[in-house]
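Expect sequence, tokenised fold; for instance:
***
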Amino acid sequence: MVRGLIAAALAAFGITAAAPAYALDVSVKTRDMGPFGASSSVYLSGPVETGDAEKLWNAIRVLDLKSPSAALHVTISSPGGSVAEALKIGRLLNKLPTILPVTITSQVGIEGEPLSGPGDCASACVLIYLGATYRFLDPASHIGVHQFSFRDDSNLNSAETASVAQLLAADVTEYLREVRVDPSLFSVMSQTFPEDIHWIDHSELNALRVVNENVYDQSAEYKNADGVYYLLLWQQSYWGENKIVAACNNGRMVFVAFLQPPDLKLVAGLEHQLTVLADGQEFTPAWHAVPTPTARFAKAEFSLDAAQLARFASARRVGARMKIPDAPVFFGFEMNLSDGKLHDTIAGCR
């Protein structure tokens, strides 16, 4: 109910991020990917106006998104518009995977054949872009933000302006939390006046988790199982859930990789090889068990020699892969390490 009141207030008082003259254009294309199911693309362009969320829903509700491999790719280029409507669209995209087995991706660009061209996503457009689970950005595309503003005909007094601004700040901050974005993005928005646009550097967009590419979430956390402490490196990505367990056993580091394969039967039927990655460099561990299937993962214990341990401990990006020897394909993951837990676990194992 509170969210509904906020949306009503934003719409009633005319909070915008631009002054659009036309509504958002929605175009949908679907491709049959054979055994991989259907892939649907939605192209959004132009300013955001009241009613655009319903327009988008009417366009995608007729798509076949019930297949486990279904994907919806959103490409958007917009100067902004209604904040309330952009929040509705963003939340619509964010909630779809909770009711349908569909993967949602977004990119900034303009519809084109065979590939989309670069584009700009400014102001309220960013709220739509953030609704996707996996968010990509072409090097030539741009994302810009600024303070949200009130329409000239809103007729708000100072007290009403302050009240609605607080409602807006609370709702946008909550939305950023819902889509797993660093809430400091709102501070970045607030530092630029409504008549200007701050085009955010791509590296900052990655740091703020605005752009997350294939990674939904990841963490490095200490765990305790029956008195045994270990470090869990975990990642949920476009390709599934993967993790590495690192533990010190009587002064010796032991590792276990749990990697999610596209087909567990493939792991059971064909021998796979385990490799480890440290800062993009792939190598075969000093020892590893033959990968075997569990209920959800392909599992393999491994150990590293002194030189490999040193590489692993100092790396800022680590991962593991499993592959059939001499085959060109693999499954696995790589993850960025934002702290020194892996280094400390290895260095403290004596």
